[in-house]
Amino acid sequence: MDRTFSEVRRLCYAGLDEEALLREAAERTRRAVPLDHYCMHTNDPSSGLVTRGVLSGAEYAEMARLALERVQFEDDVTPFGWMVTRRLAAVSLSESTGGTPERALRYREIMAPLGIEHELRGVFALDGELWGSVTAMREAASPDFDTREVAFFRRIAPHLAAGLKAAALRSHALTEPDGDDSPGILVLDRGGRVVQHTGAAERWLGELGTLGPRWREGDGQPSAVSSMIGALRRSFEQDTNREGSSIPRLLVRASSGRWLALHGAWSEPGRASEMMVVIEVAGPREVAWLKTSAYGLTKREREVVDLIVRGTSTRQISRALYISEYTVQEHLSNVFEKVGERGRRALVKRLYLDSLF
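Below the sequence we write its predicted structure tokens.
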């Protein structure tokens, strides 16, 4: 386990992109902790939603779809967000349910029908923000995860979080953009089948993952879209006032290296008969939030930066945040050091004007 831990930790700082890091880490982990099946995820730190999944086998794609559209919103046994809040990096299903896994929705609807008996969940989080997660599984003929194996996942979790966080600031080998950044629009029925879509939508979907031949029927859609479908269904169940309901959104990195924003809404608030998903290039403020998170700025430092962008003076920031001018300058100094820039103009340019790639 120590040797495998060292290998996984090295991978986290080797400059890999998110998908390659998760795939390599999972395969290395299997040498020390046998796994029958696994799913490693990237998560959008701003919403917590799963944006990409790395599966141990393509035959479990339908299981992954159910997990994305239902389980991550409806299962109240150790949801990923709950684990982050309690700083619980990894836990087995048997431990969290007191030996009665039937309490978990995912066990009843996914695991048991597939002959999967044991599960371990882990979250890759830093400073209260979720960058990735893992679901590791074993079939009934295999032993449950023991305390040493759970401890191993807890050891690698912060390093994988750091690796995914760093990947958000690195560039991919890109082709030149073709200049067509028009938003794409998907219209789906309540079963997740595509009713209508624009050409731009199909192009953006192709950048989010390989589309299956039946993607219009709901099979083989990118993980980010499945998460958005689940979030929309959840919002419909929770909000009776469609006009006042919140709009689900998430950020995800495309294969081109650009960050895309997905926004969801119900097309007809009165009947809620169709779902709409808009896919577009993320705007400066959305990307800036991700950058400040990836650079490790604290909540107070982000508040200072947000006011700087508006052209606010040190004295005005002091009054707005009820802190001394000296403290404002101290926060600014920390921000400059973390971002690697000196001066407010250069800082704003790096966070809001420069592309993330």
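Residues 171-176, 240-245 have pLDDT under 50 and may be disordered.
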